[in-house]
Write a structure and sequence with these properties.
The complex is a heterodimer of chains A (157) and B (279). Chain A has 157 residues and is an alpha+beta fold. Helices cover 37% and strands 20% of the residues of chain A. Chain A has two domains: 32 residues, no CATH class; 96 residues, Glutaredoxin. The chains are: A alpha+beta (157), B alpha+beta (279).
């Protein structure tokens, strides 16, 4: 495979290493440990995220939250029920009226909502941590893949 | 001898009627300039490069999967893949397998079919027969319900929940089926010899309709969908093992001078990363 020159690399490769294996390690580590997302939610029974399919009118934060933060939340809470609804709106009125909401259902039956319209994904995450009493996953429990780790594993075998 | 002579004479004396009916062909090859040394060297180099790459691929295929930097145990890999597939619709979030198969040039491509322990799509089959042995056989093969002529009477009375995808009947019960044609027909369940659902060879029809996933080698790869993300770990592992067995069986069935190598296997999802697993 020929190397892609730096100025011509596609956007999804931005900031990733050029080696095939290291790039995949970076992708996998992003799933396991996205910034400020490795939390456990013992009090939550269900997360429900609703947003519009296109970014316009303040729905980008919710989409990014789904794309990055929600993956890591699923990784550390495999039993948590997560429901994502992406609404398809055709007319402008519908698009303006479409809500962008994260609903948190608790174990005791109560629920709280976070309005995600015009809010950055990191801010949504912060609010979620605050209202649901999330517990940070300790560093030792997050599997992070590195070249050194692989060499160690080979040496053991 | 004289006959041949006369024939050749005729051929020599033959004169074309028009230029359209007679064409002359030249059979000498086109003269090409000899290749320069530079071109010859370049060709040799590219041949060497291809040979080196082939040798590399073979060496990689002989190594165990656990030596790959992207290797993971299946449950751990599924944790990553399920996370990558969060919030996607169920029919979109599927697990795929891709296996490299290294064979010599000219060997027929690998092909076969897998019968999954947990199929991707459930098909409910009902078998109707007066023969007790056949009913037993059908249940073993994976039919949901079996019945005889009493069962048909119950269908007529409307006591049976007709939640089937297919009803198969044997020839001995076919005549008594006519009274329920009005009930089964509109649902598309009526057994019919033309459709192949009235037969004495139940085994073949059931295994055909229970869903076998065909696979085929393409560019030294075998790729197929194995499971859905919402299956349990146990079901997924069973399906992967069934696939492995089917691929190895079809490798064994192909005749080749040199052995066909089954190399690295990658488990992946529609939107997720590829992870090397034991196969």
């Amino acid at each position: 495979m020929p190397r892609i020159p730096n100025n011509m690399r596609p956007l999804f490769l931005k900031g990733l290493p050029s080696s095939r294996v290291l790039k995949q390690y970076a992708n996998l580590n992003d799933i396991a440990n996205f910034q400020n997302s490795a939390y456990k939610f013992p009090k939550v029974s269900k997360l429900e995220l609703t947003f519009k399919k296109m970014n316009a009118y303040g729905h980008m934060g919710a989409r990014q939250f789904w794309k990055y933060n929600l993956r890591t939340i699923t990784f550390h809470n495999p039993q948590l029920n997560i429901d994502v609804k992406r609404v398809d709106c055709e007319t402008k009125e519908e698009q303006l009226a479409c809500p962008s909401v994260l609903t948190v259902h608790f174990q005791n039956g109560s629920k709280k909502t976070i309005d995600c319209k015009n809010v950055h994904s990191s801010e949504i995450m912060n609010q979620l941590i605050e209202i649901s009493d999330a517990i940070r996953v300790p560093k030792e429990e997050i599997p992070i893949l590195t070249q050194e780790g692989h060499e160690e594993r080979l040496a053991k075998a | 001898m004289s006959l041949i002579k006369s024939l050749t004479c005729k051929a020599i004396n033959f004169t074309p009627q028009s230029s359209i009916t007679f064409r002359s062909f030249s059979i000498t090859s086109i003269q090409q300039a000899p290749k320069t040394k530079k071109e010859q060297d370049a060709k040799k180099l590219s041949e060497k490069r291809i040979a080196r790459k082939d040798a590399q691929r073979k060496a990689l295929a002989k190594k165990p999967a656990s030596s790959s930097p992207l290797f993971m145990e299946i449950p751990q890999a599924l944790r990553y893949l399920r996370a990558a597939e969060v919030g996607r619709p169920l029919n979109e979030a599927v697990l795929n397998i891709r296996t490299t198969v290294l064979s010599e040039r000219g060997v027929a491509p690998l092909s076969g079919a897998v019968r999954f322990p947990k199929p991707l799509k459930e098909t409910r089959i009902c078998v109707l027969s007066n023969d007790e042995l056949k009913r037993k056989e059908a249940l073993e093969l994976g039919a949901v319900t079996v019945g005889d002529s009493k069962f048909i009477d119950e269908i007529q009375n409307g006591n049976v929940d007709l939640n089937f995808d297919k009803i198969i009947a044997t020839t001995d019960i076919e005549t008594s089926l006519r009274k329920v044609a009005r009930i089964l027909g509109p649902r598309g369940l009526m057994p019919n010899a033309k459709k192949g659902t009235v037969t004495n060879d139940i085994k073949e029809v059931i295994s055909e309709s229970l869903g076998t996933q065909p696979f085929r080698q393409k560019n030294s790869c075998v790729a197929l969908t194995v499971a859905k993300c919402n299956f349990t770990d146990e079901d997924i592992v069973k399906n992967i093992m069934a696939t492995s067995k089917a691929v190895r069986d079809s490798v064994a069935s192909i005749k080749s001078k040199k052995p066909i190598l089954v190399g690295e296997t990658v488990l992946s999802t529609t939107h997720g990363p590829g992870i090397v697993i034991n196969f």
